[in-house]
Amino acid sequence: MINYMVKSLKRSLKWRLISIIVTILIFTVSTIGISSYMQTRSSVRKDIDHLSMQILKQANMNLNRYYSEYELAFLMLSNSLEVRDWMRVSSPNVSSELIRTYERIKDNYLNRLFLQYPEVLSVSLYNPSGFEQHFVNTYALPLKYTIKNEPYFAQSGNYEKVKFITGISENYIDAANQKMKIPVLTLFKQLSNGYLKIDISLKPSQSVMSQINIANTGSALVMDQEGTIIHHSHSAEVMGQMDDHIVQAVKGQQEGSVFDKSGKELIIFQTIQMTGWKIIAILPYQEIAQSINYTRNVTIVIAISALIISVLLTYFAASSITRRILALRKMMKAMQLTSSFHLRAEVEGVDEVADLSISFNNLLGHLEQSIHDHAETRVLQHRAVISALQSQINSHFLYNTLETINSMTVIAKQSHIGHVAVNLSNMLRYTSDFKNMKVILKEEIKHLENYLMIMKVRFKDEVTYSIEVPEAHLQAICTKALLQPLVENSIKHGRETTGESVHIHIRGEVVQGDKGDKLLLTVADNGPGFSSETLVRLKQEQGDSHAHQYRHNQVGLSNLVYRLHMFYGGEAKITFFNDPVTGGAVVEVMLPLQDSLDT
User: Fold this and answer.
1) Residue 174's domain is classified under what CATH number?
2) Could you count the other beta carbons within 10 Å of the beta carbon of residue 590?
């Protein structure tokens, strides 16, 4: 089985490609997954510590703000002139002075205090003379209530600063005259042998703790130095007692985190600077482990899913590539067996394999066109040989006939007829010489003049011409029978078609081209010019000549266009247009400048 799989891998490019990519994917995904899990495991613990510490710090700041504002309000009231005056009153009997002091305390401080801090339950003043004054906000105090019954009153002389005291107060009664149990924060301090006490409900500061949600089963709390729970994220735990091992674990430290092995809990704590109490977050380690395990399981699932998807995508990608390569190989074998160059490979996509198929199809197209052109060339060569042999026979007969006609015109004293015969004979000798397909421009102009002399005899003064070629350019090389078809076209579509006289101007000059000097030959007439249909047809025939599409019935300008392309390829250029001033036809032929027949 293993040997068969190894042989299949060696024979199949697809499975070899798939196995290599899958191996790379497994190694990459496994490495990333393991590294990610280890890094995540380490980061989760750090992130939980950091997040819990930040939450505690924010809660600490909020509680400090509450306690600072309470202490500030307490100090402002205790240091006020009105309270000091009240402390100096020696008699508890009602007097106008006592009433004025009471009103000033209430108007200047207490009304504002109760309005700004609605959680303030009561303000109590104890005069050194032994009488008391109580101001309540929400709930009432019994008539027999006295500060001296409070457990902290006996130790009041030991308090140098404002003492923050918490507990469950049973001193308050509601509107139904029922006693209430209210968790309160008491601010207490001795003033000039008297005392000032403010009871504050813990509900506002308790709301700060209730909003802390670090973990689903975790908790946050504030406890004092003795382990009494002052605030708790679960309000039912307020004023309860904290486990002693936790109290001892955080005792004497400002902030940090400890792991409680007995309860398997992570304990993170900070110290509230205002009171010295501890704000603590307790996180069950099982919940932290669940986060880590969840991260591990998610990582494994994602890695396996990604690996499966990658393998499937790799299979389809490899199949797409190898399927097209196999199809291309099949096409090559079919072409080799049948020698059918008309076959084409199917092109799919836009990648390198598609480019390979396109290149193969182009190669087949070029081979097919080359074979077709080669066969057509052989046919043309065969026809040309037959035509040349036939022309030699016909030319020999025509030469003898024209010499006979010339002799008869001499006898009959008709010299003009003899001139026509001589010119025609010269033209036939010029065109039937197949050995020299290129001539100097001087010979081409001589051939053109022979033709024009015949046309002058035929049309008299209705056909006129002028030839403007500098002497220095007469030795330039051009193809045979180049100018005569152009002039013949001017006469045919000028004089013969319209019946009007026509003047033809032939000009030769040397111009500077992109690849050296060029010989520019121009034939222009004053006739009606080319029609738009003719210009379109000639442009199309120029394109056909570049594609080697030659029709054997082509004559005149069409024949000239094809011959120029066959002789010069892309180096020659012929342009047809109408003169913008006279409206006559203009033909420009641009050839590479050559000064030797051997070039």
Assistant:
1) 3.30.450.20
2) 19
* Assigned token pair, 504: 């033809």
DSSP at 110: I
End-of-domain residue from the set 286, 309, 344: 286
Say if residues 303 and 33 touch (Cβ distance below 8 Å): yes
327 assigned to some structural domain: no
Residues 6+ apart with CB under 8 A from 10: 16
Instruction: State the Cα–Cα distance between residues 214 and 231, nearest whole angstrom.
Output: 16
* Domain interval for residue 571: 463-599
Sign of the alpha-carbon dihedral angle for 515, 516, 519, 522: positive
Residue 486 lies in a domain: yes
Nearest 5°: CA angle at 339, between 336 and 340?
115
Q: How many domains is the chain built from? A: 2
Residue 292 CB burial class (10 angstroms; 0-12, 13-18, ≥19): middle
| Residue 209 is assigned to a structural domain of this protein | yes
Stretch 304-310: mean pLDDT? 83
Q: Is the pLDDT of residue 552 over 50?
A: no
Distance in angstroms (rounded) separating the CA atoms of residues 94 and 73: 28
Strands 463-468 and 502-513: parallel
Describe the crossing of helices 81-88 and 96-105 by its angle, rounded to 10 degrees. Answer: 150
Sign of CA dihedral 88, 90, 94, 95: negative
Last residue of one domain, picked from the residues 250, 266, 286 = 286
| Mean pLDDT across the chain | 81
* Distance from C-alpha of 126 to C-alpha of 534, rounded to nearest angstrom: 126
Residue 551, exposed/middle/buried by CB under 10 A (0-12, 13-18, 19+)?
Answer: exposed
Task: Report CA dihedral (30, 36, 37, 40) to the nearest 10 degrees.
Answer: 180
CA distances for 166 relative to 125, 163, 280, angstroms: 19, 10, 17
Q: Which helix (H) or strand (E) holds 169?
A: strand 163-169
Q: How far is the C-alpha of 126 from the C-alpha of 387, rounded, in Å?
A: 145
Tens of pLDDT along 32-69?
878 877 777 777 767 777 777 777 787 788 888 888 99
- Does the residue 135 lie in any domain? yes
